[in-house]
Amino acid sequence: MPGPHALEVKQKADGLESDWSEPHRFTVKELLRTPEIDAPTPGSFNPRKPTIRGKGETRGQILLRHEDAPENLIDTLDGVASWRWTAKDPWDVGQYTIQAQQTDDDESSSWSEPRTFEVIDARYGIGDAGPVLAQPVVSNHESVLLRVQVLSGITGEAVEGVKVEWRIAGEQAAMTTSVTGPDGWAHYLYTPDTAGEHSVLADLTGENQGVEITQRFEVSALPDDAWARRRPVFRYLCPGIRWQPGVSLHRCDAYPERPAQGAQLVAWQGRDTGIERRSDRSRSNREPCPGYPPTVRVGRRELVAGLRQQQ
User: Fold this and answer.
1) For the CA atoms of the chain, what is the radius of gyration?
2) Are 137 and 222 in contact (CB under 8 A)?
């Protein structure tokens, strides 16, 4: 079993028995899992300073290599759960196949499955993409936040002012267009109108002179949430905020733990699904609640609160 262990030994002979020895302590590690490559996706087009990212373990190192040149590593990264590497020098235009491996001390995982992609001349590329953090409920008109970062195909740095079109995979019409900020990130709150699986694309093709570069997000939408109706979620309001019947409150006005004495306890009549962590002031003009950190879970939807004793 993985974890710390201690062994003691003693000897028996002719009816005599020794004392136990001093403990011999050692640690058994879990076998290293093979890292996963999330991007580039198979067959995708990428700028000449491509970004490679994936998942691993928080220990040891991540090794990257070209499949056809296994002795020459692309680079060695610190072993972390979500790792990312961007080329410092431009790669030649062409097709590449890469693999990843995790090492820790004298242990090594197997190499990942080969990942093949194209490197082309492109103005922009995808640097990173945020995970899909929620399963929106269609009957509640819930949304999920999708995020993508755009990098310059020349410098590999984040780019501001790039238009990103958001569309359903297989459809031509864009649902909306967002613009990257100073950090290169563009955001879209996607609200599915039907339950099931939805493939949403962040599309840079229009800004790349027709060169197709996209990032796919898989969203699983639920038709309803009967569990939330049966079991309300209790939250404390920031002192100074008092609930009145019929008043609608933003979730950023409430906290999972008592922030200070005098906080009013309410029951949210709906899901308590945080879509994204962001500053309290990003959704409210109020100062952060005294005695509680200014970063809290918020959602797009407003929920109506009811006093606990009124249930």
Assistant:
1) 26
2) yes
- At residue 38, what is the residue type? D
Per-residue pLDDT tens over the stretch 48-58: 999 999 999 99
Instruction: Look at 90-94, 182-186, 206-210 and tell me which has the smallest mean pLDDT.
Output: 206-210
Q: Are 241 and 264 in contact (CB under 8 A)?
A: yes
Q: Which residue, 97, 104, 100, is CA-closest to 85?
A: 100
DSSP 229: H
Q: What residues does 208 pair with on adjacent strands?
A: none
The CA distance from 283 to 273, in Å, is 16
Assess contact for 92 and 119: CB atoms under 8 A: yes
Find the largest Cα–Cα distance for the chain.
Answer: 89
Determine what percent of the chain falls in helix, strand and coil, rounding each to the nearest 5. 5, 45, 50
User: Measured between alpha carbons, how far is 302 from 205 in angstroms, rounded to an integer?
Assistant: 35
Q: How far apart are CA 244 and CA 143, in angstroms?
A: 27
Residues 186, 160: contact at Cβ < 8 Å? Answer: no
DSSP H stretches of helix in the chain: 226-230
- What angle is formed at CA 133 by the lines to CA 220 and CA 128, rounded to 5 degrees? 105
Q: In the numeric block, which tokens belong to residue 79?
A: 């072993």
Handedness of CA 111, 117, 123, 129 (dihedral sign): negative
Distant-in-sequence, close-in-space partners of 110: CB < 8 Å, separation ≥ 6: 34, 101
Q: How far apart, in whole angstroms, are the C-alpha atoms of residue 181 and residue 127?
A: 14
Tens digits of residue pLDDT in 106-146: 899 999 999 999 999 999 999 999 888 888 889 888 888 99
Global confidence as pTM: 0.60
How far the first Cα of the chain sits from its last, in Å, is: 47
| Domains, the chain | 1-121 (2.60.40.10), 125-221 (2.60.40.10), 227-310 (no CATH)
